[in-house]
Amino acid sequence: MKSRESTVWRRDVIGWSLYDFANTIYSMNIVSLYLKRYLVEDLKLDDRYFDIPFAISMAIAAVVLPGLGALSDHSTKKKLFVILFTVTCCISVGLMSIVPATLVMATLALFVIAQFSYEAAMPFYNALLYSVAEGKQARYVSGIGVSFGYVGSVLGMALILPFVTGSMFGFDVGIRGSGKVGSFVPTAILFMLFSVPLIFWVHEAKKHLRKKVSIVGAYRDVWDGIRLTRKYPGVLRFLIADYFIEDAVTTVILNIGLYCSVVLSLSEQQITTFLIISTTSAVGGSILIGKVAERWSLKNLMMLDVIGWVLALILFVFTDSMTVIWVLGSVVGILLGGLWTTSRPLLAELVPREELGRFFGLFSLSGRAAAVIGPLVWTTVVYLFQPQRTLGQWAAGALSLSGDAAAKLPYKVGVLSLGCVMLVGLYIFRKVPHTLSVQND
C-alpha cells in the first residue's frame, strides 16, 4: 500500500480538490459572468448596484472571518463550517431566481448572503489542505485544487449556457433559455452537488485540543496574531502585499464579463467561449506551477506571477488585435491559477501549523478588505470617466475619442489603475523571506 507521502491521487485529496471545482462554478457564473451583467445590461442599473452589495458582503466577511478562523484552531470543526456556509450560499443563489425584477433590492440582499457565505467557507477549506497533504506535497495538492477549480469554471459555464441562451454554442439541447437569470438555479445545484465528496471523503486531521475559547477570546487571539506577527518574519508584509494584489485580481474577476461585452463587443456565446478558453489554459498551468513549486522558491514564483499580471493588463488595454486579446485571456487565466497555487502554501510555510486557522483567517481578512475597496474604486473610476462627466469629457477630448471609443474609455482606465495597484503590492512583497528549502532530501 502506498504511503501518504508517495501519492496524491487519493480519495481525500480528490474530495478536497473537488470543492475548488464546485465553488468556482458559483464564482464564475454568478460573480463574473451573469449577475452584474443582468443588473447593468438587462435592468439598466449603474455598476454600483452590484459593486456596493458586493463590497458590503466583503466588509461583513472581513469582520467575521478572522474570529471564526481563530476559533476553528481550537477544535476540529473546519469541515462543519465549510458545509454550513456552502448550503447557505446555494440556497440564497437559488432563491434569487424567483425574485421579480421589480424587487431588485431583495435580489441584492440574497446576493450579499450568498457572497458572504461563499467567502466564509474559504479559510476553513484552505486550512483543510493540511488534513489531506503535508510538507512539500501540500504545494502540489494546492495546484491540483486550483486546476480542478478551473475545470469547474469551464464545465460550469458550458452546462449553464443552455439555461441562459437555449442552446450550447449554436446546438439546440432542448432547454428553454431564460436569459441571465436562468443561470441562478443550475449554478446552485452544481455547487452543492460537487461539494458532496468533501463532506464524505475528507476527514479533518485529529489533534490535541487546546483549552476552549469563547468568540471574544477568538478575536483576542486574532488581535494577538496581528500584534505579534513580528514573531513570524514576513507574515505582516505578505498580508499587506496580498491586500493590493487581491484588490486588483478581485476587481478583474468581477468585471471580466462586463468588459468583454462593453469594450470587446463580444456576444453571449463569444463571452462564454472566451472565458472557457482562458480557464482551460489555466488548468495545465496550475498543475505545472504546483509541480514547479516543489523545487523552486514560492516567493520567486509569486513575484513572476504578479509581474506577468501587470504586463498582461497593460497589453489588454492597448492592443487592438483580437488574436492578442484571446491569447492574453489564456495568459491571465494561468496567472490567476499560479497566484492561488503559490500564495496558499507560502503563507502556510510562514506560520506554525497549529496557527493555520488564525492566519488563513487573516489571509482572508486581507483579501476581503481589498474586495471592499477594489469594487468601489472601480465604480468611481468608471463613473468619473463616463463621456457625460467632466473628467470623461476632458479625457475623451485630450485623446480625440468619440462615440464607442469614448464609452469604452472608463473601463480601460479602470484596468490600467489595477496594474498600478499590483505594482504597489509587488514593491511591498519583494522583501517577504523565502520559505523552507525545496532541495531534494
User: Briefly, what CATH class?
Assistant: Mainly Alpha
How widely separated are the two ends? 22 Å
Largest sheet descriptor: 2 strands, antiparallel
Q: What is the CATH fold-level name? A: Growth Hormone, Chain: A
Spans of at least 5 consecutive residues whose pLDDT stays below 50 are none
CATH superfamily: MFS general substrate transporter like domains
DSSP summary: helix tally: 16
Q: What fraction strand?
A: under 5%
Instruction: Report the mean per-residue pLDDT as an integer.
Output: 84
Percent helix, as a range, is over 70%
| Spatial extent as radius of gyration | 21 Å
Strand order of the largest sheet: 1-2
| Class based on secondary structure composition and strand pairing | mainly alpha
- At CATH level 2, the architecture is Up-down Bundle
Please give the domain count: 1
Q: What is the N-to-C order of secondary-structure elements (H for helix, E for strand)?
A: HHHHHHEEHHHHHHHHHH
Total DSSP E strands: 2
Rough outline: globular
Short description:
51% of the residues are buried. Helix 2 (48-72) packs across helix 9 and helix 10 packs antiparallel against helix 16. The mean pLDDT is 84.
